Amino acid sequence: MKPLRIGTRSSALALWQANYVRQALAKACGVEPEIIPIRTVGDRLQSASVAEVNEAIGAEGGKGIFIKEIEDALLSGSVDLAVHSMKDVPTEIPQGLAFAAITRRDDPRDCLISHDGLTLERLPQGARVGTSSLRRQAQLRRHRPDLRALDLRGNVDTRLKKVAAGEFDAIILAVAGVTRLGASHRITEILSSEVMLPAVGQGALGIEIREDDHDTSEQVALLDHAETRACVGAERALLRELEGGCQVPLGAWARMEKTGEIFLEACVLSPDGVQFVRGEERGAAADAEAIGENLAATLIAAGADRILRLAGNAAGKS
Q1: CATH 3.30.70.1290 fits 110-190, yes or no
Q2: Which residues contact 133 (CB under 8 A, 6 or more apart)?
């Protein structure tokens, strides 16, 4: 078997994820790939605000800012596979590429890490809560409008240092990322889906390859987890149907029930959290994409299209 090259971002979390895949491939088929770190637009703009990132990359609106250069390297043949957090992957990927595997999902939920060990409900009025995610900010504003949702950029380690130093009273991060970096002891509280629905694909890793690279596909396919692929597929179908070309706060979480059915819940919010629609859908795993599409239709009927339209108009005026 040919030696494989993994393209990945160079952050500590991305390198952990790439090493996880490298070790899994070594165990599954006896091939230990080389890791090739690649710096992306999103990495270069880690200190910028969300608005500054969107302005810097123009009409792309934030889509794919953490993976574009890696996909370019994949298409050029500089690397053989790429490891992505599925939450960073746009619903449309470049022609000629495919996801040969989506690995078993870790906990997709968000967590609160507070300076004084206070839970979300116990944070005092006006407490400063940091997150760069519009999805998290909107849900936080809906649940606790008395708190100050502040923009927070930087990698996970940088964010943890800022809350430890008291620059923020609390921050919100993905459970999976905190756990992968060995910092689960810092978690104050895992947020329930009633309070904070996660990002589409959060907690899952996708392994992207060239569509015509059958040798690599055969090796990587050993790492595919069918349940995770179906659940993430439902979430991404929902996102595809709802996307309006702008950054609209949307949370979604699909999981497999004991009956073998997929349960998908999702919400769409205005950035201030005031306008809000939420729904759920169940169905067979074989119908994963239809589950997402059906729930999108339900949300649109409940007013999600109006929220998307207003958010798009606001983005056009900014």
Answers
A1: no
A2: 172, 199
d(Cα 73, Cα 57) in Å, to the nearest integer? 19
Of 205, 103, 123, 125, which is closest to residue 172 (Cα–Cα)? 123
Percent of the chain with pLDDT over 90: 79
Q: Mean pLDDT score of the chain, rounded to an integer?
A: 90
Which of 88, 110, 169, 213 is catalytic? The answer is 88
Q: Judge if 110-190 and 226-318 fold alike in CATH terms.
A: no
Domain 226-318 has CATH 3.40.50.170: no
| Residue 88 designated active-site | yes
Sequence spans of domains, the chain: 1-104+204-224, 110-190, 226-318
Mapping DSSP onto H, E and C, the string for the chain reads CCCCEEEECCCHHHHHHHHHHHHHHHHHHCCCCEEEECCCHHHHCCCCCHHHHHHHHHHHCCCCCCCHHHHHHHHHCCCCEEEEEHHHCCCCCCCCEEEEEECCCCCCCEEEEECCCCCCCCCCCCCEEECCCHHHHHHHHHHCCCCEEECCCCCHHHHHHHHHCCCCCEEEEEHHHHHHCCCHHHCCEECCCCCCCCCCCCCCEEEEEECCCHHHHHHHHHHCCHHHHHHHHHHHHHHHHHCCCCCCCEEEEEEECCCCEEEEEEEEECCCCCCEEEEEEEEEHHHHHHHHHHHHHHHHHHHHHHHHHHHHHHHHHC
pLDDT top residue among 31 and 246: 31
pLDDT, tens digit, for every residue of 70-108? Answer: 999 999 999 999 999 999 999 999 999 999 999 999 999
Q: What is the CATH number of domain 1-104+204-224?
A: 3.40.190.10
